[in-house]
Specification:
Structural class: mainly alpha
Shape: elongated
């Protein structure tokens, strides 16, 4: 009886961890700018607190150094429409 409960618990825990791993790999819970600009954020804006548009402003300040994917994410989201 206890062995069966342990097996069920282990299977459930494995399923939860597997689902979380898939969500993380797909970038779930993060916006398109965070996904496309992760490397640039780490490089140029690591000390900037998140929230209130501060990281986005930092990225815009470094716009000439950003990858094409990152620039496209900034232009295509939020108030990035003004950046064109």
């Amino acid at each position: 009886m206890i062995t069966k409960r342990i097996a069920i618990f282990a299977a459930a825990a494995t399923a939860v961890l597997f689902a979380a791993d898939i969500a993380s790999a797909q970038g779930m819970g993060r916006g398109p700018v965070a996904n496309a600009c992760a490397r640039e954020i780490a490089r140029y804006c690591a000390d900037i607190p998140h929230g209130g548009g501060a990281v986005r402003a930092c990225l815009e300040d470094h716009s000439r150094r950003l990858s094409g994917h990152c620039r496209a994410a900034l232009r295509g989201t939020g108030y990035g429409q003004r950046w064109r």
